[in-house]
Each structure stands twice: as C-alpha cells, then as structure tokens.
Amino acid sequence: MISHPTIRSTRAAFAALLLCGAATAVSASPTQTAVGRPVPTCDGTAAVHHPLQVRVQALDPVRRGATVRLRVTATAARPLGAGAVTLVHAGGARVRGTARETFRSLPAGTPRSADFAVEVPATGHRFLVQFQVRAEGGAGALTRGAAFNLMPDGPVEHLHAATAGNGAPLLETSATRVTP
User: Where residue 73 sits, what CATH number does that domain have?
Assistant: First the structure.
C-alpha cells in the first residue's frame, strides 16, 4: 500500500466527504430524513462522544461461591427517552434475580442505576459479565455496552508502591519477557 502523505490526506478527506454526504443523501429535505428525524450534520471537528456513559461497580466482595451485586449506572449527555439495562452475558457466573431493568426516561446529567446479582462459580479464574444500556434518542435508539471482570482470586499481578522519576507515586509490578 502506498503511504504518501498526499494520498493519505486525500483518502481522509474523501472519507469525511462520504460520511457527511451520506447523511444528507437519504434525507427527504435538507433538515429531515424520510421518516421525519433530523439529519445528522458534520461540523468538521471529528470530536465524537457517545451520549451515554455507563459504569459498573461491585457492591459486594468478589468471592468464590458468593453472590455479588453489580450496580450499572447510566448517565446521558442529553435527555433520552425510555430504555433498559440488560445483563446480556454472565460469563459463566449464574444470574440471581432479574436480567433486565427498564426506565421511563434518562434526563441529561442525572444518573440512573440498576442492580443485578450474579453468583461467582466455585472454580475458574475470571468471569466477564456484560451489560447493554439502550435508550431512545432524538434520532433513534442509542446503545452502549459495559462489562465487569469478576476475578475471585484478584489480579494475577502483585502490585507494590513505587515512586516515579519525578517523585510522583505509582503502582508497579514485575514483568517477564515472553520469548517464542
């Protein structure tokens, strides 16, 4: 593949033109799509931020055979309509209770939380519990995923306190070279 700077910048400009043009090509009018939704505009800043922020935290200690409550918190950058938080994959843990919680709306900047419970298996090393948050936005449904890594034995690395060259505190671990 040729990687000349002019060709790269031409490709990037062409891709941006296609993305901006695609949004208006399907519209019934310059300001609305065929189904009456506003047309997304391209402002040229390329700063893309998902309007949903999702956080998962454990409310209980993660131990083998124990039930762990996980709180999923969603915060919207702009007001969103009805939606749901769904536990889509338990990663080998057993779901205890509901796997879906709904909400009527998600006001901008106001967090909404849903609690789920999973039982950590007696054997195994890590269990990735996956969630999906879905809400209705002005241009259709918005979806964002989040995951929580249940590690009943803790991380494999053993961290210890150290000091960086500039005097800042940090945590470090030993490393080994992997050779083929």
Answer: 2.60.40.10
